[in-house]
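Problem statement: downstream parser choked on a complex file, so we are re-checking the raw output for the adenosine monophosphate run. The parser issue turned out to be on our end (a line-ending mismatch), but while we're here, posting the original submission so the record is complete.
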Amino acid sequence: MRIVLLGAPGAGKGTQCKRIVEKYGLLHLSSGDILRQQRAEGTELGKKAQSYMDSGALVPDELIVEMMAGAISRIPDGGYVLDGFPRTVNQAQELDKALSADGQKIDAVLNLEIDDSIVASRMTGRRSCPQCGGVYHIENLKPAVEGKCDKDGADLTQRPDDSLEIVENRLKIYHQQTKPVVDYYKNSSTVYDIDAGKDADEVSALVFVKLGELVEV
Ligand code: ADP
Ligand code: AMP
């Protein structure tokens, strides 16, 4: 299965991807995680991406498409879930071109629908584990011990781009540039709209029903 997860920043894409991966054994490719890794390693790409990410802007399409096409081509076999990519119609078109050159296509798109008012508090309350990438929330999905990762005990950190000021910019950009990607896929793929305003377990249940239908086909 090749799946794309769409939704505003903070809608819960990463959280649901981790659960999909556990259940279906797919690979999780998050463009944001790959970019943060590139920055941590101090690569050229990481340096180029830095100022865009810090202001909440999108990194230019050509850099992202090359990065993600490369990551996808290194997946040996089987399926994957894309998280945070594509984020513009141009990226979606480029992805389709790259896949069709190999006789492949996206099998399903899960569109996590959520209100801006909820999403802002999800982002400002997000905490992440710098070691394993685990994601928590200070109110909704708390770790067992405050400020520590359940898996490895590392100190949880807050993403610099999750400050209220930057969050507002990211949401504006989502509506301008990423929302049209949903319509792009509605013309070419199966898009499942999911109510992502529910609690995380309820959202997972909705996601698994849809993916279950797909597996049976
Ligand atoms: P995205 O990958 O779409 O940016 P995340 O999966 O990182 O979003 O989730 C954003 C924040 O919201 C995190 O702090 C996460 O723990 C929390 N979260 C995710 N899904 C839910 C949910 N259904 N209800 C409440 N909080 C959630
Ligand atoms: P995320 O972790 O998905 O919230 O992404 C964090 C930041 O990385 C975004 O605000 C963008 O600056 C950048 N980014 C991630 N994915 C993309 C993408 N597909 N296109 C452009 N920029 C991206």
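For whoever reads this later: The mean pLDDT is 94.
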